[in-house]
Specification:
The complex is a heterodimer of chains A (857) and B (71). Chain A is of the alpha+beta class and 857 residues long. In chain A, 57% of the residues lie in helices and 9% in strands. In chain A, strands 1, 2, 9, 10 and 11 form a 5-stranded antiparallel beta sheet that branches. In chain A, strands 4-7-3-8 form a 4-stranded antiparallel beta sheet, sandwiched between helices. In chain A, strand 5 and strand 6 form a beta hairpin. In chain A, helix 16 packs antiparallel against helix 19. Chain B is mainly alpha-helical. Chain B has one domain. In chain B, helix 1 packs antiparallel against helix 2. Classes of the chains: A alpha+beta (857), B mainly alpha (71). Chain B: Belongs to the V-ATPase e1/e2 subunit family. Chain B: It is found in: Endomembrane system. Chain B: It comes from Clohesyomyces aquaticus. Chain B: Pfam families: ATP_synt_H.
């Protein structure tokens, strides 16, 4: 076994392992493996429903505890009590024992009862308080009505009382008068109803009353200035006090019914002002009593919640882990006779030692004599694809995984992507200044990594933060390409002596033409003298176009080479001879030749030999349309050009039928040969099963194995739960042929279209450069025209304007578009050359992942 | 002062650098990442530079100032 160490180049070597765990320590074993987080357990009970599984009861109990914890959390949020952050615990990741879990469950049950009873009484008290408050308002307002009503008919009543109700004081201000000649309303056979009603219903209420009583009523109402708070949902409602006078008992009863049905609360008000004052006094005392009781209840509740808040996060983590453990245990099959749990899991082979020692530890701690047995199983199943990533590689791996899951042990495109993705981005984004902004931003994110990871970020920023190392690489490469393009915020960077000197003009001025320093080529990047010349676009377009073609050719050749590596690794020589070699020859004889011509044309000093350089575009067109002839036969690119082009073209054409037919016919030949020798496809049903028939006494292959432990020679063959698409595929020639035809057409056409696709490098870098020049010219260049104090102020304002536009338009927007284009170049242009990608993702049972997916704050 | 030999010298530097990285990359599980990233970066940066250099080695046009036009 002992494979080479796992790298990012290929997915980790996986083994299907079988665990025999004593029933007593099942929970401890799984929880220890959850801490390790390297085992992907297979569901061995997929045909049983969730309710029939062994540990459903435990999960239900934990669900209940979780619900209680969430309830506490909700109560804390309502009372705005902060929860102690999960990061403040020294070690929240210790796995608790079963008894601790029981304790926790009991504790949370009793706490829930206590909290909910406290809450209930608090709410009851609150409701009582609201009622009393409303009553007080009714008493005050209704009192005002009474007084006003009486004031119209009778003399003004005198009040000796010193009540502090404002309306009554109002009455007092009206002046002196003899004690009221109490002509009661009842004497006049007028009854009344008083209460409060939500303000939005008042119009409907009035209308209904008017219609049902035909106007036989006198209604008075006034708004309560402060909103009433509903204790059930903490909503504020504005209400009105009303008082309705009407004739007769029936009418009054009718009014009562109507108002109650409209959600009004009715309160009794005495028409006698003395009694009313007593009522107010009584209500006031009761309110103040209630307030003190409420305060006490609230503080008890808060104290209780604060106590819980200190450990709530840890409890949540514990319960989540425990639930995960039981959910995993539910995937195990249970051997009733031997009282063991049997589990099957994929694990990286390199971790088997660690797994075994962990299991040994658990065993020792439990003091069990029966060891936990780890068996390796041989299988025809596709193992899951697993890459061990770190902070740096994670984001790059995610880019590739977003396209498709990599086939097990296939070359991982993520490894070269670490460089090529940010580099192709930088070719489009090349500007030293903008690259510096990206670099510094990424550096800041990396520096404050820990802090940012713990804080809640909004969606967009968390996405950028996730890709911080990509941005970091992008920044570095953008600075480099910016230097090569000689652009810093669209300004030139004169590092070396220019290779051009301006010609002396007629009037002693320099230019407009320039002549070259003899034999000297600008050593790094584009010559800065090209900046702001009349024909810099002419030059840089030609340069950037060829740069894109050359880089594209390199990138595609590089990617195509991986298909060779894959074919060699998977021992499929037919893929080398039937796909890789003809494909490579086809690609190189056209586009390799084009790349060669570009470089060759550059390396020849056309002026020195006194010839016109031929156009490469026309050369390529003539190569296809009129093989053997050149556009200008007198002036070839090099000697024998026409002959070489014919040979290359023939090579390319020959490769097409090879690409088309070699692989399918070879496969058919192989298949027929195997058939002729009497071989048939291996059926999975010939295997012996340890899991499907546990009670079968005759079944000893695995039963016997147990005592021997995990010797590698005696590997037990286990039936996979067949019928999951693992069946041996029937050989179907037509299918393979069609597949190969599609592949050939795609490949040949893609060679052309993908090369053209790399021209986006040119287009985007041109657009980026032009945009930054325009931005500079429109803002900063104008600001330099002003001088003095005014100029300084304008400069500052314009600078901010320019800088924010640079960041948001040039860095963020342009950066996003360049990134998407680079992404496409990887997914389509590069990965189509070698990526197989029909892998199964590795989903280990890991507490860490569990908590990341469903974080406890 | 011809300097058209520069691409070859730099190529040599890149090759030496790549060998250096191959042997000096930090050991451990990230060795592959170190090697591949540094070597590929060097190669990509070299390519970009060399292409730019070659494009200017025998230029077919020369810059013309836009602020001065011939009368």
């Amino acid at each position: 076994m002992a494979p080479t160490k796992d790298t990012l180049f290929r997915s980790a070597d996986m083994s299907l392992t079988q665990l025999y765990i004593a029933n007593e320590i099942g929970r401890e074993v799984v929880s220890a493996l959850g801490e390790l987080g390297v085992m992907d357990f297979r569901d061995l009970n997929s045909e049983t429903t969730a309710f029939q599984r062994t540990f459903t009861r435990e999960i239900r109990r934990l669900d209940n505890v979780e619900r209680q914890l969430r309830y506490f959390h909700g109560q804390m949020e309502k009372a705005s009590i902060p929860i102690r952050s999960i990061y403040d615990f020294n070690n929240p990741f210790t796995s608790p024992s079963a008894s601790e879990i029981d304790e926790l469950a009991d504790k949370s049950q009793s706490l829930e009862n206590r909290i909910s009873s406290l809450n209930e009484s608090y709410e009851t008290l609150k409701r009582r308080e609201v009622e009393l408050t409303e009553w007080r308002w009714v008493l005050r307002e209704a009192g005002g009505f009474f007084d006003r009503a009486r004031g119209q008919t009778e003399e003004i009543r005198h009040s000796l009382d010193n009540d502090d109700a404002p309306l009554l004081r109002d009455v007092e201000q009206h002046g002196q008068g003899e004690p009221a000649g109490e002509q009661s309303f009842s004497v006049m056979n007028i009854g009344f109803v008083a209460g409060v009603i939500p303000r939005e219903r008042i119009a409907a209420f009035e209308r209904i009353l008017w219609r049902t009583l035909r106007g036989n009523l006198y209604m008075n109402q006034s708004e309560i200035p402060e909103p009433i708070i509903n204790p059930e949902n903490n909503e504020e409602i504005s209400k009105n006090v009303f008082i309705i006078f009407a004739h007769g008992k029936e009418i009054i009863a009718k009014i009562r019914k109507i108002s109650e049905s409209l959600g009004a609360d009715l309160y009794s008000v005495d028409e006698n002002s003395e009694l009313r004052r007593d009522q107010i006094r009584e209500v006031n005392t009761r309110l103040s009593d209630l307030a003190s009781v409420l305060r006490n209840t609230k503080s008890t509740l808060d104290a209780e919640l604060t106590a819980i808040s200190r450990s709530l996060a840890a409890w949540m983590v514990i319960i989540k882990k425990e639930k995960g453990t039981y959910e995993t245990l539910n995937k195990f099959s249970y051997d009733h006779q031997r009282k063991t749990l049997i589990a099957e899991a994929w694990a990286p082979t390199n971790y088997l030692g660690l797994i075994k020692s962990t299991l040994q530890d658990v065993n020792d701690r439990a003091g069990l004599s029966v060891p936990t047995i780890v068996n390796q199983i041989k299988t025809t199943r596709t193992p899951p694809t697993y890459f061990k990533t770190n902070r740096f590689t994670l984001a790059f791996q995610t880019i590739i995984d977003a396209y498709g899951t990599i086939k097990y042990r296939e070359v991982n495109p993520a490894l070269p992507t670490i460089v090529t993705f940010p580099f192709l981005f930088a070719v489009m984004f090349g500007d030293f200044g903008h690259g510096m902004i990206l670099f510094l931003a990424a550096l800041a994110m990396i520096y404050y990594e820990r802090k940012l990871q713990r804080s809640k970020l909004d969606e967009l920023f968390s996405m950028i933060f996730y890709g911080r190392y990509i941005v970091f690489m992008m920044g570095i490469f953008s600075m480099y390409t910016g230097l090569v393009y000689c652009d810093a915020f669209s300004k030139p960077i004169p590092i070396f002596n220019s290779m051009w000197t301006w010609n002396e003009g007629d009037k002693g001025s320099l230019g407009p033409g320039a002549s070259r320093l003899d034999g000297y080529t600008y050593p790094f990047g584009l010559d800065w003298k090209w900046h702001s010349t009349d024909n810099d676009l002419l030059f840089s377009n030609s340069y950037k176009m060829k740069l894109s073609i050359l880089l594209g050719w390199c990138h595609m050749t590089f990617s195509l080479m991986w298909s060779l590596v894959n074919a060699r690794y998977f021992h499929t020589p037919i893929d080398i001879w039937g796909n890789f070699v003809p494909g490579m020859i086809f690609f190189q004889s056209i586009f390799g030749y084009l790349s060669f011509s570009i470089v060759y044309k550059w390396s020849v000093d056309w002026a020195a030999i006194g010839r016109q350089p031929p156009s490469l575009l026309n050369m390529l067109i003539y190569m296809f349309l009129r093989p053997g002839t050149l556009e200008d036969p007198e002036q070839p690119l090099f000697k024998g050009q026409a002959t070489i082009q014919v040979i290359l073209l023939l090579l390319a054409v020959i490769c097409i039928p090879i690409l088309l037919f070699l692989k399918p016919f070879y496969l058919r030949y192989e298949h027929n040969k195997a058939r002729a020798m009497g071989y048939r496809g291996i059926g999975e049903n010939t295997r012996v099963s340890a899991l499907d028939d546990d009670d079968d006494e005759g079944q000893t292959l695995n039963g016997g194995r147990e005592s021997f432990g995990d010797d590698d020679d005696g590997i037990a063959m286990i039936t996979q739960d067949i019928g999951h698409g693992e069946e041996h595929e029937e050989f179907e020639f037509s299918e393979i042929m069609i597949h190969q035809v599609i592949h050939t057409i795609e490949f040949c056409l893609n060679c052309v279209s993908h090369t053209a696709s790399y021209l986006r490098l040119w287009a985007l870098s041109l657009a980026h450069q032009r945009l930054s020049i325009v931005l500079w010219d429109m803002t900063m260049a104008n600001a330099f025209a002003f001088t003095g104090i005014g100029g300084a102020i304008i400069m500052v304002v314009v600078f901010y304007f320019w800088f924010s536009l640079t960041v948001f338009v040039l860095c963020v927007m342009e950066g996003t578009s360049a990134m998407l284009h680079s992404l496409r170049l990887h997914w389509v242009e590069a990965m189509s050359k070698h990526f197989m990608g029909d892998g199964v993702p590795f989903q280990p049972f890991s507490f860490k992942i569990l908590l990341e997916e469903d974080p406890v704050e | 002062m011809g300097n058209s030999w520069l691409p070859f010298v730099v190529l040599l530097v890149v090759v030496l650098f790549s060998f250096g990285v191959w042997f000096l990359a930090p050991k451990g599980e990230n060795q592959t990442v170190w090697r591949s990233t540094l070597i590929l970066s060097a190669v990509a940066m070299y390519l970009m530079w060399a292409i730019t250099f070659l494009a200017q080695m025998h230029p077919l046009i020369s810059p013309i100032r836009y602020d001065l036009r011939p009368e």
